[in-house]
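User: Hey, my collaborator sent me this sequence without any context and asked if I could get a structure. I don't really work with proteins. Can you help?
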Amino acid sequence: MTEKATAPSVLRNTAFLRLWTGTTASGLAMWALPFVLGLAVLERSITAVELGVVLATRTVGFLAAVPIAGVFADRHSRRNVVFWSCLTAAVMTPAIALGMGRSLLLMAAAATIVGAGQGACRPAFQALVAEVVPEAQRQQANAATTLAIRVTTLVAPSLTALAALLTDAKALLAVTAVLWLVATLVPPAGKAAPVRTEARAGFTAEFLEGLSEARRHPWLLSGLGALTAMIAFGYSATAVLLPVVSRDRYDTEAVLAAATTAYTIGALAGATLMARWRPRAQGWAALAGLACYGLIPLGLLLPVHAFVLVAVYAVAGVGIELFNVPWFTAIQREVEPGKLARVSSLDFLLSYGLAPVGLAFIAPAIDQFGVSAVLGVCAVVCFAAPAAAALVPSSRGFTRSS
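Assistant: No problem. I've predicted the 3D structure and written it out in structure-token form, which is a compact way to encode the shape of the chain:
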């Protein structure tokens, strides 16, 4: 059984359109940076080792900033946090170009600060949705935002490659700085003001308040655990092994390209579906969608036809948005507004923060236990974690009252 959306289109909400534009611009700038730096390697402006160092330091900055930004976005205006974090990324991006061929230290330091700006704006953007969009339109808003993200991941590499025919990597870095300026200036002011207290708790105490708020929602903890397990085991393993399987089993890189493209197209389809679909048991439907990712390590493990593997990636792409859209909507609905940014930062920190950890352990695990064993374990985890989360009573509707 499902419910049809009856709320007016969120695309008529000017404040959301401004927020959507800023979020999309920041996402495009964030996704473009690795590709631009990859082109710099091809141009011999930097080495492959320098590329690895710069991307690693950017990730460190991102992860370090996320929890801090969550506290600040609940203390202060979310719009101001977006402004200063995106402005920081805009100002420091050209410093990466300045360091090319001159100073790896400058490039790494600039990338760390850019990553911090990227991480700092995420919880604030997420909390701003709840401020500028009425509750009845938030699922549409989150679907529209994730559509923009998926389109960005689909077109950013191609746009970067095409732009590289006309200019060099340094100029493309300047373009990403302009995108960060758009993200700085375009988003609207939120409608909620931070709660003022005479004696404000320290940073650690306020962060712990966010943890306490998360613990009040058992569905959130169980869902976050399932998402974290999927990313740490499933996403990390498939990111490493899809190129290997494409080369060794199918003897072509076309399967790699087709599978990753199918995943993004599936995600676009899933986000489009969730803009209109309201499952009655939305939590269970979301967790079932998340479990679809387990089909990927299973497809990599079994000797299936290439078309079957590509189809599996498409199904997993649909499934991930069946989870993402109601997940973000439920957090915005259920979490206390004054603690929303801190809970969102916890979501980003655990789910995406553990991805590099998973990637770091995959190669040693393959060497120790073999590809088949690693893929088998990852498939089991991807299926079992959402199933276990679904056993939590409140997970049925992603609400404490379910």
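In plain terms: Residues 1-5 have pLDDT under 50 and may be disordered. You can pass these tokens on to your collaborator as they are.
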